[in-house]
C-alpha cells in the first residue's frame, strides 16, 4: 500500500471520485435518452480538435472541448430540424472529426507528445490543476441537475410529455448536450477516446439490473464506477499495464458477473412459481 504515499496516485484517486460523480449523472442521462451513439460520435469528433490544437500550438484539451461542443450542438440542431436523420448526422460528425484530427496531426511538424494519452488514457498523469477543473465542472453539473432535476428526468424519458407540461425541452437538451460534450473531453484523460464510452454506459447497465429509478441509477452507477476505478487502478499497478484499459476491463467483469447472478436468480424464482 506504499503507492498511496505517491502524489500521482493520490491525484488519480481524487480524479476517479470526481469522474465517477460526473459519469454517474451524465451516463444516466445518456442511457435514459438512448444517445450512446451520439456520445460515441462526440468522443471521436473531439479527435479533430486535438489535431487542430497540436497543429496550432494551443492547448489540445481546450481545442478538443471546443470542437466536441460544436459537434454535439450541431448534431442536436440538425436532428431537431429533421432535415437530416440523426444517425446520418452523427456518422458525418464522427468521421469528420477523425479525418480532421489525422490530417492536422500528420501536418504537425515533429513529435506530438501526449497523443497516446488522449487515445488510450493515462490517469496517472492527471495533475492538481486537472482535478480543480474536474471539481468545478462537477459542482456546476450537480447544481444544474438539482435545480432542474424533474425537467431533466421528464425530458430524458419522454420529450413529448415534457413539452405538454410546459417544459422547454429544447433548452434542456442543449444544456445537457453541452454537459455531455464537456464531460467527454474531460474524461478522455481517464481511459482515452477509444474506451471512454464504456465508463458512461457500463455502470448504468449494471445499475439497471437492480433498480429503475433515475435517482437510484445515478447513485448505484457512481458507486460502481468508483469501486471499479479503484480496483482497476490497483490491478494496473500490480500487473504493470495501462490503467484505462484495466478499469474498463474491471467494469465489464463486474457487469458480466452481476448479469449472470441476476439471470440465475430470476430463473430460479420462475421455476419455483
Describe the fold and architecture:
The protein is an all-alpha fold. The chain has one domain: Orthogonal Bundle (ABC transporter involved in vitamin B12 uptake, BtuC). The protein is 81% helix and 0% strand. It has helices spanning 7-33, 36-56, 60-81, 86-107, 115-120, 128-147, 149-157, 159-164, 169-191, 196-199, 202-207, 214-239, 243-272. It starts with 6 loop residues before the first helix and ends with a helix.
List the helices and strands and how they pair.
Blueprint: H1 7-33, H2 36-56, H3 60-81, H4 86-107, H5 115-120, H6 128-147, H7 149-157, H8 159-164, H9 169-191, H10 196-199, H11 202-207, H12 214-239, H13 243-272
Keywords summarizing the entry:
single chain; mainly alpha; 273 residues; ABC transporter involved in vitamin B12 uptake, BtuC
Amino acid at each position: 500500500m506504499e503507492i498511496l504515499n505517491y502524489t500521482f496516485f493520490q491525484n488519480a484517486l481524487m480524479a476517479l471520485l470526481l469522474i465517477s460523480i460526473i459519469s454517474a449523472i451524465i451516463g444516466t442521462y445518456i442511457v435514459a435518452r438512448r444517445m450512446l451513439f451520439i456520445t460515441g460520435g462526440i468522443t471521436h469528433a473531439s479527435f479533430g480538435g486535438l489535431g487542430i490544437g497540436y497543429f496550432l500550438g494551443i492547448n489540445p484539451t481546450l481545442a478538443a472541448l471546443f470542437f466536441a461542443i460544436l459537434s454535439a450542438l450541431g448534431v442536436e440542431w440538425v436532428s431537431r430540424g429533421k432535415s437530416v436523420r440523426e444517425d446520418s448526422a452523427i456518422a458525418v460528425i464522427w468521421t469528420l472529426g477523425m479525418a480532421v484530427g489525422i490530417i492536422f496531426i500528420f501536418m504537425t511538424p515533429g513529435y506530438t507528445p501526449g497523443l497516446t494519452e488522449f487515445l488510450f488514457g493515462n490517469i496517472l498523469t492527471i495533475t492538481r490543476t486537472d482535478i480543480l477543473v474536474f471539481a468545478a465542472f462537477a459542482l456546476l453539473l450537480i447544481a444544474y441537475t438539482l435545480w432542474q432535476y424533474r425537467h431533466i428526468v421528464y425530458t430524458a424519458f419522454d420529450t413529448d410529455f415534457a413539452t405538454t407540461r410546459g417544459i422547454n425541452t429544447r433548452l434542456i437538451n442543449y444544456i445537457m448536450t453541452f454537459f455531455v460534450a464537456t464531460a467527454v473531453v474531460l474524461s478522455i484523460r481517464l481511459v482515452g477516446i477509444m474506451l471512454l464510452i464504456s465508463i458512461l454506459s457500463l455502470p448504468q447497465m449494471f445499475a439497471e439490473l437492480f433498480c429503475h429509478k433515475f435517482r437510484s441509477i445515478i447513485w448505484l452507477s457512481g458507486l460502481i464506477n468508483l469501486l471499479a476505478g479503484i480496483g482497476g487502478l490497483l490491478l494496473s499497478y500490480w500487473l504493470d499495464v495501462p490503467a484505462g484499459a484495466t478499469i474498463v476491463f474491471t467494469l465489464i467483469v463486474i457487469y458480466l458477473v452481476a448479469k449472470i447472478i441476476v439471470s440465475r436468480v430470476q430463473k430460479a424464482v420462475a421455476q419455483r412459481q
